[in-house]
Structure formats: C-alpha cells, structure tokens
Amino acid sequence: QVQLMESGGGSVQAGGSLRLSCAVSGYIIDTYCMSWFRQAPGKEYEAVANIFSGGGGIKYADSVRDRFTASRDNAKNTLYLQMDSLKPEDTAVYYCAARRGDWCGFSHTAYSYWGQGTQVTVSS
Fold it and tell me: For residue range 2-44, what is the model confidence (pLDDT) as tens digits?
C-alpha cells in the first residue's frame, strides 16, 4: 500500500524558512516521479517542483525558483522541500504527490498518490 505523509508546516514571518518532509512507504521513491504541489484557499492546485525518477533532475515553478529547493533521500525514502525567503503569497496547503511512468510534470491530475497535506502560513 502506497502512503505519503507530509510534515514540517507551520507559521513564519515573511523572509523566514521552513523545511517540509514527505515520508513514503509502499514503494521506492527513486522509481517514481515525485512532486510538490500547493493549494491556497479558493485557488487551483499549483505545482511547486518535480523530482524525476532515477536521478533525472528537478524542475521548479517560476514562482519558487531560486527560493525553494527540493531533494530526495533515497536511503530514508523521504522527499524534502526547503523553503527560504518565504513570502505571504506562499501561504497554502502543501502536498507531496507521486506517479509511476516516464512523464513527470506540473499537471496535478496525472498523479495517483497524494499525502494529506501540511499547512504553511507566511505573515507579512
């Protein structure tokens, strides 16, 4: 059974940092496309970062590039999202998601497995 569980959310002031974790069970994360998404109240899902399987690289959304860093610890089967220079517009529920197959992109409907989400609130 595939399970994803996020942690590390919280409240910070603008300019601060948070580190999210996504612990995965039921499969080996290096064999799947892993991604971070977020959803602000009343808005659609927004892709944050894709981590390609097999060391294929990481792709970031323009809104977070140079501020957020996604990574994967294969030994711990855990995904991370280091968020620096946070802005109020980063406030959202953050999700990790996974899908099998070669495609690894920003369309949230293509992902089969999701965590429960963790709230990130950035105050000005």
Answer: 899 999 999 999 999 999 999 999 888 788 999 999 999 999 9
Which candidate, 33, 5, 20, places its Cα nearest to that of 83? 20
If phi over 0 gives left and psi between -120 and 50 gives alpha, with beta otherwise, what is residue 108? Answer: alpha
Answer yes or no: are the C-beta atoms of 81 and 19 closer than 8 Å: yes
Question: Is the predicted pLDDT of residue 55 greater than 80, yes or no?
Answer: no
Dihedral, 47, 51, 57, 60 alpha carbons, nearest 10: 20
Name the helix (H) or strand (E) containing 114.
strand 113-114
- Rounded-to-integer distance, Cα 12 and Cα 31, Å: 34
Q: Length of the chain, please?
A: 124
CA dist 85 and 96 (Å) reads 21
